[in-house]
Design goal:
The complex is a heterodimer. Chain A is mainly alpha-helical. Chain A has 11 helices and 1 strand; from the N terminus they run βααααααααααα. The chains are: A mainly alpha, B alpha/beta. Chain A: Pfam families: Fer4_8 (PF13183).
Chain lengths: 193, 370
């Protein structure tokens, strides 16, 4: 996490301003994620952080993320890489002694963030991914590369692509699903829900 | 041998013991220093974990006192003789014969003014848990300026786990009490924010942890791990708290309308010299053995019950009082059986047990510096 600095390199986030604490964010998360995202029960034991396979890469451990949501520290939550590093493996959720579901909390926070128009690589990747699935029903990797990283990404990955193609792991032509119409119907139905 | 038993202290433990002894068929004299029975509990509103009305508990125990002689407004000034022929002299000048004596003199609430940095007695909005409880009873929780508070901080461990005030022990009930009053405040003032400043949460009894969870889940009470370092008053009467938020390892400042100090229990050792009872380094009475003779004092025929021997919840005090009643009945029964010349050698090991004392006391018993 980038430390905010004032003039002369004085760090400004060295102290917690207790007066900014509020329940707005946790209520919003609850409204978004439903009962599954109930975080008030958290007692800060740290079981979630302890079992998280991606914890070492996170700037805000799952326990702290839940604490920040509880206290309404929206900026810290939003800036954190934790949201995008979570692989939704549900280890934390399966071990929480108070029935908190950090995975669902993270999902809910992400949904709010996207709704508020957050822009970062992870969000862009996800959106392109979904667009392509909607279009074809199945992923065509070179197309994803092109859209996400431009021509440069496509060229950079070309060597790996050729190797995969030669071994029959990747088709050079866009694959198709058997019944595109049925698939898109099912997708529309799922989105409606 | 007369069959009278003197119970000193008319709180929940004393009343529970007196009631049971009466049921066993003994004559009981209950000595209470105040004009009303009920001890500390009679002043309270509702008690954890099930929000039973404190008055209900008192009334129930009072109802069991039929045929018991109650002496109000009296203290014990002298105890003469040995078991089973004690003579108890009260401050009213009365001499009472007793086969056995039960000391159930309870605790005193910690004097919060000793923690100067919390501003009790200096700032108007710094109050104790006892004062808050009285406000809840009246349904009038308000700041010094008469407004309902929007933000309240509750401070755990005030006068407990604190070497500075010579109280190294945990008072055991304050954590659960904090959770309970936090819920009560939320019920009376739903939009009030509550912050509990704790070091550890010690909610250990049946239903206590569930209460703690409910306070978080259902009432949104916030828990901040960190001990209050100091409180200062702002010009508008609100209080600025300084503490460390140890969960993020950063210092924190927090402004609140009202500061509630959850005061712990302090031993009441007024009878130490009169009844010749030993006092532990925590200034509660020492029992004959911490594990299996927890109602016996080292003095034959004098028994102990309730918070006189250390902090206890109300339910525990009542149980302890009744357990003491059973001990007394057994003790007196042995006299009757052996026609007063019984062999009590089986009770002798007491002396050696007492010598061991509390292994966690690294300092000899000493008076409080205050």
């Amino acid at each position: 996490m980038v430390k905010k600095k004032c003039f002369f390199g004085i760090k400004t986030d060295r102290q917690v301003d207790g007066d900014k604490m509020n329940a707005k964010l946790s209520q919003e998360v609850l409204a978004q994620g439903g009962e599954n995202a109930a975080i008030n029960a958290c007692m800060q034991c740290g079981t979630c952080s302890g079992g998280c396979p991606n914890a070492e890469r996170m700037d805000l451990l799952p326990r702290s993320l839940v604490l920040m949501v509880q206290r309404g520290e929206w900026e810290k939550v939003l800036k954190s890489q934790t949201l995008w590093l979570c692989s939704s493996c549900h280890t934390c959720t399966s071990r929480c002694p108070r029935g908190v579901r950090p995975t669902d909390v993270i999902e809910a926070v992400k949904a709010i963030a996207i709704r508020e128009g957050i822009k970062n690589d992870s969000v862009r990747f996800n959106q392109i991914f979904v667009e392509l699935i909607e279009k074809r029903g199945i992923l065509f990797e070179p197309e994803l590369m092109l859209k996400y990283g431009g021509l440069k990404a496509l060229v950079d990955q070309a060597e790996l692509g050729i190797k995969l193609t030669l071994k029959g792991k990747l088709s050079p032509f866009p694959p198709k699903v058997k019944e595109p119409k049925k698939f898109s119907e099912a997708l529309t139905k799922a989105v409606k829900k | 041998m007369n069959k009278n038993i003197v119970v000193i202290g008319g709180g929940v433990a004393g009343m529970a013991a007196a009631g049971k002894l009466r049921e066993f068929g003994y004559e009981v004299t209950l000595i209470e220093k105040e004009k009303e029975l009920g001890g500390n509990v009679k002043n309270w509103y509702k008690v954890f974990p099930d929000f039973t009305d404190a008055a209900e508990i008192i009334n129930k125990l009072k109802g069991e006192l039929k045929g018991i002689r109650v002496i109000n407004n009296a203290t014990v000034t002298q105890i003469n003789g040995v078991a089973p022929n004690f003579e108890v002299i009260t401050s009213t000048g009365e001499k009472i014969d007793a086969a056995s004596i039960l000391v159930a003199t309870g605790f005193k609430p910690f004097n919060a003014a000793l923690k100067e940095e919390y501003g009790y007695g200096i700032y108007n909005n710094s109050i104790t848990s006892i004062e808050l409880d009285a406000m809840l009873k009246q349904h009038q929780v308000q700041t010094a300026s008469g407004k309902p508070p929007q933000k309240i901080a509750m401070i755990h461990c005030v006068g407990s786990r604190d070497q500075q005030v010579n109280n190294n022990y945990c008072s055991r009930v304050c954590c659960t009490n904090t959770v309970k009053v936090a819920i009560e405040i939320k019920e009376q003032i739903p939009d009030c924010e509550i912050y509990c400043l704790y070091m550890d949460i010690r909610v250990f009894g049946r239903g206590y942890e569930e209460l703690y969870r409910t306070s978080q889940e259902k009432f949104g009470v916030q828990f901040i791990r960190g001990r209050l370092s100091e409180a200062g008053e702002k010009t508008d009467g609100s209080l600025l708290l300084r503490l460390e938020d140890t969960l993020t390892a950063k210092p924190m400042r927090l402004t609140v309308d009202m500061l509630v100090l959850m005061v712990g229990m302090v031993g009441n050792t007024e009878l130490a010299e009169i009844a010749d009872l030993k006092v532990g380094c925590d200034r509660f009475y020492t029992t004959a053995h911490e594990q299996y003779s927890n109602n016996n004092s080292e003095k034959k025929g004098i028994f102990l019950a309730g918070t006189a021997t250390g902090p206890k919840a109300i339910m525990e005090s009542i149980t302890d009082g009744r357990s003491a009643a059973a001990e007394i009945a057994a003790f007196l029964h042995s006299f009757t059986l052996e026609n007063m010349s019984c062999d009590l050698s089986f009770r002798q090991p007491f002396a050696s047990m007492i010598a061991g004392g509390n292994q966690f006391c690294n300092t000899p018993p000493q008076p409080s510096p205050y």
